Amino acid sequence: MTDDSSRPAVARRCSHVLLRVRDLPRAVGDFRTAGFEVAYATAPERKALHAHVWFPEGPVIELLSTPPGARWMRLPVDLRFGRGAGGRMVRWAGQDEGFCDLALLVEDAELASVTGELARDGVPCARTVRWTRRRPDGAETRFAFSYPRAGRLPFLVTPYDPPQHPAGVRHANGARAVTEIVLGVRPGDLPAVRRLADDVRDLRLEEAPVTAVRAVRLAGLTEPLDPSLLHGAVLLPADATPVPPTTHGKGSSTS
């Protein structure tokens, strides 16, 4: 895929790839059976909607479920998080299990200027939302995010404060790090994706009928993972054969 834009990117690292699951406790259990350490993101765990597969550094895999009735919450979510946020959540809630979004890191001090630059370049974003999350250990985590109004584009998030990457994480299946995220990009979305994510070193863009994460490559896997435990995620060894072109099923129409 080519693009003649010479403008610099505004985000240079991937933060996390989001994996939509229907039943979070079940998905956490299955990922643990597949050899991953998985940590719930919030307390109490029985009400959590997010869980993380951490690595010592680099991008994270986030397991995500949606609240009951989320597919009918477009307007209240837009009012709370800004125009475009509601459509994104409705898409998450309505799609099959599998990758549903991609977050790109922007430093907190730069987020406002970045979203302003994006708007001037034709990639408008919803308002910046500052969020606090209480972890299962009782500590609080703070971060901010902003969603592009086009609901298939990657969104922006600041680093967690305080940082949360656990230095001692050891996955039984040998996984050490996310080395590459394969993002399918609809040709019409390419200029905006380039503006958001050009030169992100752990991201590969491939032409596709719908803009969506297609696969994640992991360093260190000692054997293939059982797909029945992965809730639609395509997780491949770092040296696996490139992912072939694919079509997208239920729930993957453009927003």
Structure description:
With 255 residues, the chain is an alpha/beta fold. It is built from five helices and twelve strands. It has an eight-stranded mixed beta sheet. A four-stranded mixed beta sheet has the order 10-9-11-12, with helices on one face. Helix 5 links the parallel strand 9 and strand 10. It starts with 12 loop residues before the first strand and ends in an 18-residue tail after the last strand.
What distinguishing features does this structure have?
255 residues, alpha/beta, eight-stranded mixed beta sheet, four-stranded mixed beta sheet, 12 strands, globular, disordered N terminus
Helix content: 10-25%
Low-confidence stretches: 1-6, 246-255
N-to-C order of helices and strands: EHEEEHHEHEEEEHEEE
Biggest beta sheet attributes:
8 strands, mixed
- How far the N terminus sits from the C terminus, by CA atoms, comes to 22 Å
Oligomer: single chain
Structure summary, number of beta strands:
12
- The backbone outline, from C-alpha atoms, is globular
Q: How do you describe this structure in short?
A:
The chain is α/β, with parallel strands linked by helices. The chain has helices spanning 24-33, 74-81, 85-94, 111-120, 190-197; strands at residues 13-20, 39-40, 50-53, 60-64, 98-105, 129-134, 140-146, 155-157, 177-185, 203-207, 212-219, 235-237.
